[in-house]
Q: What sequence folds into this?
C-alpha cells in the first residue's frame, strides 16, 4: 500500500478497495477489532473529526465537492485501519515498509544519474511534488532505520533494513528538499534515543547518531554541494525579503505567509473555505495588496496556516489535536517493554513527527500521495498497537 500511493497506476485503487471491504467486515464481526479502535481513540477520533469538519466547511462555503476529494479519503482509511488488527506476519510488515523506501530511492537514483534530472521528484508528480516525495521516502526510511537498529533481529534482516533505508535516504537527498531533510534530523535523533532508553544500549545509540549525522554532512557538502547551497540561500533570501522583492522560494513563502495572516485576521472563525487560499491571494494581487510572485500558488506552503486560513482558528486547533494526540499516543507506547507494541509505536511516531515538522514550511495533506500515507499509517499503526495491547504477551520479537 505505501508503495502504491507513490505510483501513477490506476490499478492501485484495487487493493485499497479490497482492504476497505475487509476492514468493514472486521469491524462488524470482530469485537476485538472494535476494542482495538477504542484503545486507539486518541488517533482515530481526531481523524474522524477532521473528515466531518471539512465536510461541513465545504457545504457551508458552497464549494465544489471536487475540493473535498482528497480529504474525503479519510473516510476510507478509517475502516481500512481494521485490517491492521487482523493476524498479520510482522516480518512482512517490517520488510514491506523498508523495501518500499528502497524501491523509491532507486527510482530517485535512476532519475538523477540516468535521466539527468537535477532535482528528482518521483513518478507520481512533477517537480512541484519533490518536497512531498522527499518527506514520503524519509518516513519509510526512518521506519527501516529503526528496524535496522534492533539487535534481537537476525543479522541478515537487519542488513536488509539498513540497505533499504540507506537507498531511501539517499534518494530523498537527491530531491534537494530542505524542509523534510531538516525535519528528519530531530525525528531520527528522538527515535534512536528512545531505543537506547528501552534497551540500555547508550553507546550504540551515540555511535549511530555520530555516524548518521556525519554521513549526512559529508553527503550534503562533498557529494552534493548543491544541497548545501540551497540551505545557504535561506538566510540570504530571508534577510532581503520585502513586499517589493518577493521572488525566490523562501521570499515567496514569506509573502504567502504574510497574506495568510491577513486572511486569518479577516475571517478568524470560518476561514475562506477548503482549498481557497489561492483564490484569496489572487484577489489581493488584483487589489495591489500582494506580490504577483505568489499568483501561481494555491496553498500557503504551511499546513498550519492552510488550516487556519481555510477553516479558521477552529481548524488550526483541530490540526494541533490531530498531530498532538498522535504524538502523545505513539510516544507513550514507544517505550513499552514489548517490541510488539513499541516498534509499531516508533513507526507511528516517525510518521507523525515528520508530518508535524514538515507542515511548518510546506503543505503535507493537499496531494493524495502524502495524505494517503499519513492516514493509512497512523490509523493503521494505532489500531495495530491497540490490538497488541489487548492480546499480545511481552516478547522480544514482533513488529
A:
Amino acid at each position: 500500500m505505501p508503495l502504491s500511493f507513490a505510483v501513477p497506476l490506476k490499478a492501485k485503487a484495487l487493493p485499497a478497495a479490497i482492504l476497505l471491504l475487509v476492514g468493514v467486515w472486521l469491524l462488524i464481526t470482530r469485537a476485538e477489532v472494535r476494542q482495538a479502535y477504542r484503545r486507539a481513540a486518541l488517533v482515530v477520533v481526531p481523524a474522524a473529526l477532521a473528515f466531518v469538519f471539512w465536510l461541513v466547511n465545504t457545504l457551508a462555503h458552497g464549494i465544489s465537492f471536487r475540493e473535498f476529494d482528497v480529504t474525503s479519503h479519510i473516510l476510507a482509511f478509517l475502516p481500512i485501519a481494521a485490517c491492521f488488527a487482523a493476524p498479520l506476519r510482522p516480518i512482512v510488515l517490517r520488510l514491506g515498509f523498508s523495501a518500499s523506501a528502497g524501491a523509491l530511492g532507486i527510482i530517485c537514483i535512476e532519475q538523477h544519474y540516468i535521466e539527468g534530472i537535477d532535482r528528482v521528484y518521483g513518478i507520481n508528480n512533477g517537480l512541484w511534488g519533490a518536497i512531498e516525495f522527499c518527506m514520503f521516502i524519509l518516513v519509510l526510511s526512518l521506519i527501516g532505520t529503526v528496524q535496522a537498529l534492533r539487535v534481537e533481529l537476525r543479522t541478515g534482516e537487519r542488513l536488509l533494513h539498513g540497505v533499504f533505508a540507506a537507498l531511501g535516504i539517499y534518494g530523498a537527498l537527491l530531491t534537494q528538499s530542505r524542509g523534510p531533510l531538516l525535519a528528519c534530523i530531530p525525528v531520527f535523533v528522538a527515535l534512536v534515543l528512545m531505543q537506547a532508553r528501552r534497551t540500555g544500549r547508550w553507546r550504540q545509540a551515540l555511535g549511530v547518531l555520530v555516524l548518521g549525522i556525519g554521513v549526512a554532512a559529508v553527503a550534503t557538502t562533498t557529494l552534493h554541494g548543491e544541497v548545501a547551497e540551497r540551505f545557504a540561500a535561506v538566510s540570504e533570501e530571508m534577510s532581503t525579503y520585502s513586499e517589493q522583492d518577493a521572488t525566490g522560494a523562501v521570499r515567496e513563502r514569506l509573502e504567502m505567509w504574510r497574506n495568510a495572516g491577513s486572511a486569518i485576521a479577516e475571517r478568524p472563525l470560518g476561514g475562506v473555505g477548503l482549498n481557497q487560499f489561492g483564490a484569496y491571494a489572487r484577489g489581493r494581487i488584483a487589489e495591489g495588496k500582494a506580490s504577483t510572485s505568489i499568483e501561481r500558488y494555491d496553498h500557503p506552503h504551511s499546513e498550519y496556516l492552510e488550516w487556519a486560513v481555510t477553516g479558521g482558528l477552529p481548524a488550526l486547533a483541530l490540526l494541533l489535536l490531530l498531530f498532538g494526540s498522535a504524538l502523545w499516543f505513539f510516544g507513550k507506547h514507544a517505550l513499552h517493554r514489548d517490541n510488539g507494541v513499541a516498534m509499531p509505536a516508533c513507526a507511528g511516531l516517525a510518521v507523525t513527527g515528520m508530518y508535524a515538522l514538515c507542515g511548518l514550511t510546506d503543505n503535507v495533506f493537499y496531494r493524495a500521495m502524502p495524505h494517503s500515507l499519513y492516514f493509512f499509517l497512523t490509523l493503521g499503526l494505532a489500531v495495530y498497537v491497540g490490538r497488541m495491547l489487548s492480546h499480545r504477551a511481552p516478547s522480544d520479537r514482533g513488529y
